[in-house]
Amino acid sequence: MRERVLDAAERLLTQDGAAFSMRELADEAGVSFATPFNQFGSKAGIMQALSARRIASMRERLAQAALPARAVSRVLAAVEIAVAVMLEAPGVNRAVMGALGAPSDAPGDVLARSSGLWAEALADGKGLASATRIRALSVLPDQLAFAFRGVLSFWTAGELDDEMLGRRARSAAAAALLGFIGREDRAEVFVLLEE
């Protein structure tokens, strides 16, 4: 039932943005008016669930990808995957991001989910500076989540177009990684900062 309601929400977001009512959502999903409330609590809950769906898709694709061993390359691959997911339905994803940025009675768990994605990308931190690897694996998942969300906020607001999203997301990830990488990755990361 949850997936049916979320699928309907995505269809409505494609048609009219986030302006749909819960009654319209119930009608689109072919369920009773109470069902979306029972499943998600509120429209904000639906948007959080759509965000969770996106992050789950990113994590699934990351798990299926043939990833390099080095953490920097893995994170950059995760950036490409995350950007691709967001650009598959940019209108829907901008509406979801806009809703997530609004005050809500119940905080979601977007940060925890996003940090989980970046922790998976970092894996065991191969190639990170050995002196700070443990610290990096502790702090970088959140920092990468903050960096990606920051770039998404400018994209959501229309300050970055779809083409710039990937470049800016790579740059933001590179900036977060910079203090924790070994010498062999510095040249690659510095190039990304200049994109």
UniProtKB/TrEMBL annotation:
Gene3D superfamilies: Tetracycline Repressor, domain 2
Keyword Lipoprotein: no
Molecular function terms from GO: DNA binding
InterPro entries per UniProt: Homeodomain-like_sf, HTH_TetR
Domain HTH tetR-type: 1-58
Superkingdom field: Bacteria
Annotated DNA-binding residue span(s): 21-40
SUPFAM superfamilies in the cross-refs: Homeodomain-like
Keyword DNA-binding among UniProt keywords: yes
Keywords assigned by UniProt, alphabetized: DNA-binding
Protein name per Swiss-Prot or TrEMBL: AcrR family transcriptional regulator
UniProt source species: Methylobacterium brachythecii
Source taxonomy: Bacteria, Pseudomonadati, Pseudomonadota, Alphaproteobacteria, Hyphomicrobiales
